[in-house]
Structure formats: structure tokens, C-alpha cells
Amino acid sequence: MRPRRHSYGRGGRSAAAAVLLVLCLCVTGVFLLLLHGSSPPLDAEGGKEQAAAAGGGGGRHEGPVVLAEVEEAPLPPGNARVAFLFIARNRLPLDLVWDAFFRGDNEGRFSIFVHSRPGFVLTRATTRSRFFYNRQVNNSVQVDWGEASMIEAERILLSHALKDPFNERFVFVSDSCVPLYNFNYTYDYIMSASTSFVDSFADTKQGRYNPRMDPIIPVENWRKGSQWAVLIKKHAEVVVYDDVVLPEFKKHCRRRPLPEFWRDWDKPIPAEAWKAHNCIPDEHYVQTLLAQNGLEEELTRRSVTHSAWDLSSSKDRERRGWHPVTYKVSDATPALIKSIKDIDNIYYETEYRREWCTSNERPAPCFLFARKFTRGAGLKLLNSSFIAAR
């Protein structure tokens, strides 16, 4: 009797082929995930919702909304974080400067949020730093200088950043701002203070305070200062949940059209040119809100971001007016950076107050950041190692 052979018919071969096909598909899927790692948007509630938010908010967005499909920079959990809140027009021209700064941290002690025009997405095509991938907020608004929309942008950034329980400090950063020191020094400087850093002083100029704000905002609570503040969590929550001061600012704190005749080369700035403006909301809102809530004792009443305003006699018409000077490539020198780092006190004329700068109860430079720098100036500083060193 011949031995019985085990027969492998068509059914057996089909099953083996099916198993092999499934294995191939699984391996291919894993490979694609590794190759095209993606991260959820800041408010991860579905792609459709993100796409709708990116195209809304009053801004104009042409063409289809494309979501970023790139990996975010990893942030190990467990450390108190400083949230950097960037207010940008579109792209971040100084992203490489900040990339070098953030590379100085290996412990996940920072987070990043960017408010840009509605519909703008930070991808490999729009930023050269992986730290900014997908970090745009998905409900941004169209921001106009001198309008309450700037306040709305700040509140949107804070509301996103407050969702992360590890965020303990909140730093407003402009798209033309550069860090002056490395990450470790900056982090220790900010975290060692139990107060917010808010440039705040009594504003005695006529035409800024609108009497119609009284009695909701009495004149004795009216403050002015730089919008580039560093807030502790308590004060960030006060800003986000405010429903008293902001409505008054929207109604009564507005800018008037800026005259252009005095920008000419051969005409001096009129002595009372400031009267052309009534109120710039972002220069008053946070300061007035915190004073209104009786929180000034919890503030270090100075900014840690330097801006140069004293150029009224400059012959360069681009450097005259209502905005701080913009530093160009020719300005980006070691002498400039050293002069900013050497500032150790600030004098407030309206209050006859001199603020001596300290960190950890020791004398320290006043400023951690500086603005306004062009992209070329920032890259020159980066390549020459003038900044981000301690």
C-alpha cells in the first residue's frame, strides 16, 4: 500500500496567500506611520472641526485648508513649563534663532503656541524649525494694530496654553523678538520670580483715558505699558475670564486715524502728534485689568522685553513714529546686544519710580528678550553667537 500523501489543494493555497497579504499590509501601514508621523491640532476634536476653524475667524483664506502632517517636537512631561505665546502676522521670520534657543532644553520645560492669520498652518513648507510644527492655534482672528483684536489674540493664546496643567508661566513674544540669553538662564530667571513681569505705570497723558469708562474703569486704575508681559497662571486666568474690562475697551478704547503728513523727510514731528491717537488697547489692557482687580502687589512692574523708542530725531523716516525702531543687518552688532544686556534699571517718569532689576533676589539684567529685529539681523546675530549665550 502506498503511503497517503497530504494534499494541499486550491483552498489551502488561497488561505496562505491571504495571510501573506494581510501581513504585508500591516508592515506597510507601520512603515507609513513611522515615515509620516503626524500630531493632532492644538484642539484635537477632529479634522473637520480644525479645517473649519482654520478657515474662519474673519480672515480671508484662499484655496483648500491643508492640515500639517508633520511631527511635533517631543516634550517630556513632568516639569513646570514656560509657555511661549507668539503673536505673528504670518510666518515666523526668526524661527531659526528660536530653534537654537529651544534646543538648549532637554527636559520639556517649555511649550509653544502661535497666533497667526486665520488659515495659516505651520508645516515644513512654512517654518524651518520643527519646534513650531502644528503650533498655530486653530481659532485665530484677524489682528489690526491699535485695535482690540490684539487683546483677543492674547486671550486666545492664553486659553490654549492654560489647558496644559504643566504651564506655569506665560510669555508674550512678537515675531520680531530675539532671546538674549540661553534657555537655562531664561527659564531660571522667569521661574524664580513668584510675580508676573508687567510693564505698568500711571498714564497721565490726555486723550488716552476715555471718561466714558467711568465708573466701570475709574481713572485711578488706568495704566499703560508694554504688551510683552510674562504672566503667572493666576493672572493668565484673570485675563482669560475677564468679562468686565474688555467690553469697555472695545467700546471706548480705540485709535484714531494716523496722520501721514509729518512722516515726510523735511517736516518735524508735531509737538502734540500723540493726540492723533485716543487709546491703543494692547498698551493698556493687561495693566489696567490687573490694577482693577487689586493685583499690582503681585507684579514686578517692568517688562523683560526691550524695545527702542528714543529715535524721534532719526533722519530715517522708517524709524520715526508710533512704532519702536526696527534693527536691520547693519545694526546687529555685539555693541548693540551688550548695551541692552547692560541695562540694570528702568526709570518711570510719571511715577518718579526707578525699578532696579533683580533675579533670585540678586542684581540682574533687566531684559531677557529684545525687539524689533529683521530676519537678516537675527540670522547675523545667530551666526555670530552674539545672543543666546550666558
Automatic annotation (TrEMBL):
Domain of life of the native organism: Eukaryota
Keywords, sorted A to Z: Glycoprotein, Glycosyltransferase, Membrane, Transferase
Molecular functions per Gene Ontology: glycosyltransferase activity
One GO CC term, this protein: membrane
Signal peptide per UniProt: none
Keyword Glycoprotein: yes
InterPro entries in the cross-refs: BC10-like, Glyco_trans_14
Membrane topology (UniProt): Single-pass type II membrane protein
Compartment(s) where it occurs, according to its Swiss-Prot or TrEMBL record: Membrane
DNA-binding recorded as keyword: no
Pfam families assigned to the protein according to its UniProt record, in alphabetical order: Branch (PF02485)
PANTHER family: CORE-2/I-BRANCHING BETA-1,6-N-ACETYLGLUCOSAMINYLTRANSFERASE FAMILY PROTEIN-RELATED, GLYCOSYLTRANSFERASE BC10
Name the UniProt record assigns to this protein: Glycosyltransferase BC10
Species of provenance: Triticum urartu (Red wild einkorn)
